[in-house]
Amino acid sequence: MFNYLQWGRRCSAGALWALAVWGVGAGAQTTPPKAAAAAAGAAAGVPVVSQLWHVDYDVAADGKSSVAYATQHQVAHASALERMKSFSFSYSAGIQTAQILEAYTLKADGRRIPVPPTNYQTVVSDGRDGAKPLFSDRTRISVVFPDLAVGDSVGMRYRIDDKEPIFPGAFSVVQGFSPYGVHEDSRVTIRAPKGLNLRFEAHGLQEQPPVQDGDATVRQWRYQNTTPKAWDEADAGIWRLDESPVLLASTFADYESIARAYGERALPKARPTPRIESLAQSIVGAQTDPRERARLLYEWVSTQITYGGNCIGVGAVVPRDVDVVLDNKMGDCKDHATLLQALLTAVGVRSEQVLVNAGELYDLPTTPVVSTVNHVINYLPDFKMYLDATAKQVPFGYLPGSAYAKPVIHVGADKALASIPPGSADLTEQRAHTSIQIAADGSAKGSLQASFKGLAAAQMRSYMADLQGDGERDFVRNMLASGGFKGQGVLDRGDLAPAKELSDSYSFSITFEIAKYLQAGKRGAFVLAPVLNLPMGIARLAEAEEKHLPRRRTGCYGYHSYETYDVELGAGVAFNRVPPNLQTRNQALNYSATYQRTANGYKVSREVHDTTPQGLCTPEYAAQWNNEVKPIAQNLQSQIFYQRGEPAKEQAKGAQKGQVKGQARGAAKGPAKAPGKVQPKKR
């Protein structure tokens, strides 16, 4: 199956550094084709026009920088009015200072209204009794613009100055612009000492000739886009940084340099202390197998250390001391990875920390920029296994789905650059067995047993464990209702023992009663599907052929799904026609479906084996997959024709087989997901 992902700005909660890809901002301009710009923006479907967006970086030899912003945005549509009435930015008080130089509302008639002192709000993160805060030292400054209306503009000038560089002697930045927005006057200026080895990479920007200013070199890039690109389905998928307007600047010679810069301060914190050695031994106990030791330690960190960000000065790129993490049972991705490495080392299991992108970046740009690798995980070289202890509900040996096929940087390894291999489709499995008795009045009762293997097992177990009180009691009724049924039932949540929390196998079951399972009267037709919408329900392939084909690489994954049905027909109920049996074997998709007459009804079995590796798929692969799914979709759209309420004379002769398209009840359109929270708690 395929994930249709849209490009955008996304910051993972477990990120090291925020990746600012498409620059937005509020800006300032003095020339007014204001009404025309607003009209053009509204006509293009763009609610905000960036009239001016200037950012100036003044970089010092030690890696510190001063950044000055001058921005002005015009409200082109009422839908943007509320969010444009205020603007906020933050900075790390421990290593930065900031000040607002100017803020104003520029009316459409040219009047300029300065923001009064009463329209500012400063929120300071601090500890207690003079102590430092635990999570963040970021100060947030907010501005409310007065008397703002559609057609008006909001302007700001402010600056942020470093007191200490994130990495001593190093500087890197990514600044990009959205091709879907209106940019009238955007520019990025970088002033740096002549001796600073600063590399640049720009795409879709107009580079200006370098200017010498004393001992510094000034470089500038400009961007203008008065005709924004309209979003098209073809734009869905995975983008590279160089496919949109972007500037990258860095003093790092290569990605190994980034790994060394991170490792210099991170790896010493991963050395085992007596406390770590004692804890590690208490976790592994008498276990001597290295792989099992690694599993026990991974599960302990994943389940016992909750997420807590570190936004205190250079803490964005430096882990906390392991004692702090253990004392509070809390840490960010760096803390999880560092603690796990220390515990593994204490019991003789080799491991490495690994830098990876937490978002949708699957290609590292030529110019090494720190913010492109904004998450930290672990690697066990003896088992060739990557682990992400920050991502919850992920069993040992698995990764969150979005991690596969990504480039990574190994910290402290002889060979730093590598790639996470695609995930095997054989690791993911779902089995569902439905027993159902259909009565002559159209009602039905029965049971469903569902079992899962792989990442879905831990995710479904987590979802079920979170069900309490009314949620557990009403689960069956609510899920039946979401599939178009009115009924009730009882949920058996299965084994939810804490020791099984990260097991890669899980089962649950329900019993159900449905008032009108056959809803079309004495004669009708329906599509057979499980009464609950399961994560890997086969019925979702019924509409796969209707999806648009991507023209870009897209996220994809494979799985095994097995469904069996024991259908018992009560007196007076007959199936007059059932779908044809079908078996297909292809490169990507294998499928089989059989309908077998029994003494009292039918035994139905369906199986899908999608062999697609988890990771990235090309448009060509997607087209091939789409061709292979078409006969499967047609078979799944085939209906069962029935009659009820009268003697079933034809029942003993066996049902005729035919094919008519229909919509499955009990299965939602599009990619099916388990109800509620079944995705990993991504950090």
Describe the structure in your own words.
The chain has eleven helices and 37 strands. Strands 2, 3, 5, 6, 9, 11, 13, 14 and 15 form a nine-stranded mixed β-sheet that branches. An eight-stranded mixed β-sheet has the order 26-27-25-24-30-34-33-32, covered by helices on one side. The protein has a five-stranded antiparallel β-sheet with strand order 21-20-19-22-23, covered by helices on one side. The chain has three domains: 250 residues, Immunoglobulin-like, CATH 2.60.40.3140; 164 residues, C8orf32 fold, CATH 3.10.620.30; 231 residues, Jelly Rolls, CATH 2.60.120. Strand 5 and strand 6 form a beta hairpin. Helices cover 17% and strands 33% of the residues. The protein has 683 residues and is of the alpha+beta class.
- In helices, the fraction of residues equals 10-25%
Mean pLDDT: 88
Number of helices: 11
- Please mark out the parts with pLDDT under 50 across 5 or more consecutive residues, or reply none: 4-37, 650-654, 656-683
The count of DSSP E runs of length 2 or more, i.e. the number of strands, is: 37
Distance between the termini: 24 Å
Structural class by sheet pairing and helices = alpha+beta
* Shape label: globular
The CATH top-level class label of the largest domain: Mainly Beta
Radius of gyration: 29 Å
Strand content: 25-35%
Q: How many structurally independent domains?
A: 3
* Oligomeric status: single chain
Task: Determine the CATH topology of the largest domain.
Answer: Immunoglobulin-like
Q: What is the annotated CATH architecture of the largest domain?
A: Sandwich
Major pleated sheet: 9 strands, mixed
